[in-house]
């Protein structure tokens, strides 16, 4: 089935540097993700979580092995080709929110649409719609310093979704939030996954947060140690 093959990593290896500075960050990773999944990737610091996310997110390429995204082998794509596919198919959420400080919530959410050449009217409509999905339509004109950490992260989630990506990747999305706001973000992810069918991959080192996902993949020393779907 089509949906079986949203993401396919086959024997993915990533080596940084060479000689005495060589780091084997990923070692023969096999991972299959279907449309509509909500996965957490869990592991200690330095285990390869961000490296795997950079490869899945088309920010970096594997040293060896294959990565098929919607059945397209992107393993050997050039930087420009990766950038195109990344803008179309991936939404990112970061630990530090990465919002533009001088722009309003709405302008931040609309940003990915600007790069896609969508006109002003539609940008505004889709931006406001996404802000309503994360419960912030009344705050569209606020700048990040006028919003709480949890609200900033909700703006970032709206921004990640506005281009209707195939996958949303979140790297430690609750790493800078207190427990109350962390729970709110996780509940938002669950709702977006269940009601909107958004495919989510969330990296965390927090077991409580990880347990909220439907499937958990444990990684250690660049290898998958356990995958609850297997
Ligand atoms: N650009 C890089 N150059 C060299 N080594 C790197 C680079 N990025 C990550 N590493 C190393 O690869 C390993 C995995 O890193 P990373 O994927 O960032 O782990 P995590 O996100 O789980 O903390 C670590 O040993 C790290 O030091
Ligand atoms: Mg990391």
Number of helices: 7
Distance between the termini: 18 Å
Q: Quaternary status of these chains?
A: single chain
CATH superfamily: P-loop containing nucleotide triphosphate hydrolases
Number of strands: 10
**Uncertain runs:** none
- The CATH architecture can be given as 3-Layer(aba) Sandwich
**What's the CATH class label?**
Alpha Beta
Q: Hetero groups bound?
A: adenosine-5'-diphosphate, magnesium ion
- Mean pLDDT across every amino acid position: 95
What portion of residues belong to β-strands? 25-35%
Task: Choose one word for the global shape.
Answer: globular
Going across the biggest sheet, name each strand in turn. Answer: 6-7-8-3-9-10
Largest sheet: 6 strands, mixed
Helix and strand run = EEEHEEHEHHHEHEHEE
**What count of domains describes the coordinates?**
1
CATH topology: Rossmann fold
Based on secondary structure, the structural category is alpha/beta
In helices, the fraction of residues equals 25-40%
Can you characterise this structure?
- This protein is α/β, with parallel strands linked by helices and 230 residues long.
- It has a single domain (36-60, 84-227), classed as Rossmann fold, CATH 3.40.50.300.
- It has helices at residues 49-56, 79-89, 105-115, 120-133, 149-161, 179-196, 207-210, and strands at residues 7-16, 23-33, 38-42, 64-69, 72-73, 90-93, 167-171, 200-204, 215-220, 223-227.
- The protein has a six-stranded mixed sheet, sandwiched between helices. A four-stranded antiparallel sheet has the order 2-1-4-5, covered by helices on one side.
- The mean pLDDT is 95.
- Magnesium ion is lined by residues 49-50.
